Amino acid sequence: MLPSLDSILTTTNLNQSIFDIPVEDNRQRFLSFPIGTYGNSLIPLDQITEILRVNLEEILSVPETPSSVLGAYNWRGDMLWLIDLEHLIGGYSIFAQVLTPQLIAIVLQVDSYYFGLVVKSVNEIELHHLNQLLPARMGSFPTQLLPFIIGYLPNGSTVLNPKAVAQFFL
């Protein structure tokens, strides 16, 4: 059974609270989440505005948008574009996989633009040194994934580039 979103978002479930680690540690905080068959991916926590549950029936599909755009969602009175991340990188659409009417959207801010990446689940917050980041090269990852990642860490987790995802839709 997958952990609930509430348990992931509360720091009381973390061994040592990740928010108590001193900044001079030089590690950056990342949200970890599974992404298709590619293992775990990471997004810098400082680029995440909110993580929210979204009901399928609350998403307004918009004609003539790429198939990876699920549609628009009313977020805080504004329109939030929701992007099916797994479908964007060449995987199956969330609609082909969804077992529950609720999805998880990771709301990101790139410059003054907000959008939501829809994923099946989120794992935890992890600390990593950015100097350990390895460049993603052709042949190491699927070609559909390469434009959207900064690189990968020795543990195999890819680091997503939110700006590249936003530029894909602008």
TrEMBL record:
Identify the PROSITE patterns for this entry.
CHEW (PS50851)
Q: Which domain of life is it from?
A: Bacteria
Q: Where is the CheW-like domain?
A: 27-170
One GO biological process term is: signal transduction
Protein's UniProt name: Chemotaxis protein CheW
Q: State the species of origin.
A: Iningainema tapete BLCC-T55
